[in-house]
Write a structure and sequence with these properties.
- The chain has 153 residues and is an all-alpha fold.
- It is built from 3 helices and no strands.
């Protein structure tokens, strides 16, 4: 066998090895990509890009990562919005409770004032009734004395 044929065989074997290696590498990348897609986790897409920065699916991985980041940002924003709304509702509820408590105290004070007025009116009426009875008794006693005095004469 001549030197040209040896080189040719060596060259063919090398090409065959390269083709096999590329095919295997493609299969490995495809398998890895399928597991990444199946898991659908941002960290796995980032790991794919770390291992295959210029791989067949690199652009798709970058798009997925961008979409996941945007989704996470939107979810965080929605969470903040819900928390702000919940805080506002809690604040409004606290304000309504405070207003209700103030109104309850006013109502209680008004009821107490009205009770005191009724009590004072009742005491005044009782006093007037006592004075009237005392006057009536005094008149009766005066009439009785006048009758006794007239009878004695």
């Amino acid at each position: 066998m001549g030197s040209g044929q040896t080189i040719r065989r060596f060259f063919c074997a090398t090409i065959l090895c390269l083709i096999t290696a590329f095919a295997y590498a493609g299969d490995a990348e495809d398998g890895f990509w399928k597991s990444v897609v199946k898991g659908n986790v941002q960290e796995e897409y980032e790991l794919y890009l770390k291992q295959y920065p210029n791989g067949r699916y690199a652009n798709e991985a970058r798009q997925k990562i961008g979409a996941m980041r945007e989704k996470a940002r939107a979810q965080q924003e929605a969470k903040k919005q819900k928390q702000a709304e919940a805080a506002k509702r809690a604040e409004e509820e606290a304000r309504r409770r405070e207003e209700a408590e103030v109104q309850r105290r006013r109502d209680k004070a008004e009821a107490e004032r009205q009770r005191a007025e009724r009590e004072a009116a009742r005491e005044k009426a009782d006093e007037e009734a006592r004075e009237l009875r005392a006057q009536q008794q005094a008149q009766q006693q005066a009439q009785q004395r006048a009758q006794l005095a007239e009878q004695e004469r």
